[in-house]
Amino acid sequence: MKLVQPSVRKELETQPKLKKRYHAFQQLINELSGREIPESIIGSLYSEIEALNTIPSADKHFSRELRKKKSVILKTLLKELKLVPNHHYRNLWLALGMSVFGIPMGVAFGAALDNMGFLGIGLPLGMAIGIGVGTAMDEQARKEGRQLNVAHEF
Question: Which among 21, 37, 30, 129 has a CA at the least distance from the CA of 80?
Fold first, then answer.
């Protein structure tokens, strides 16, 4: 089974933001068309794309549904095939680094210097650690061929 392409929508020319978002969705589907994907996953992706194709562009809920469908497709790819978009791990670990490493380091600085105003020093350090870890994981995914050449933006 081959992936169905999203329908061409000429009426999006007047809405630049929605046009850009829809183009990113089309790019994701084109990227997936060039990969070996099991039939079971293609079936679920097919149903998501077909559901989106049935919604008219003039509908006020089209933008929201487009975001939802792209998110569902990316989550399915991550869960089933371990395929991730560009900078997925970097963005994930940025927040994790700030919360897991940055806050404890800030508390340690604040306690050591007896001034909790230094709590904020740990956040950028944790952010840097998180970006480093996430970038390394993104590079590993790229080397293993698990990275999709699309941005994960909404």
Answer: 37
pTM: 0.85
Residue 45's nearest CA partner among 31, 66, 29 is 29
Taking CA atoms, 36 is separated from 2, 101, 117, 146, in Å, by 10, 38, 53, 12
**44-82 pLDDT tens trace:** 999 999 999 998 888 788 999 999 999 999 999 999 999
Tell me the range of 5-19, 54-68, 115-129 where mean pLDDT is highest.
115-129
In this structure, how many other beta carbons lie within 10 angstroms of the beta carbon of residue 70? 23
Q: Where are the beta strands (DSSP E) in the chain?
A: 84-86, 147-151
CB within 8 Å of 50: residues ≥ 6 apart: 4
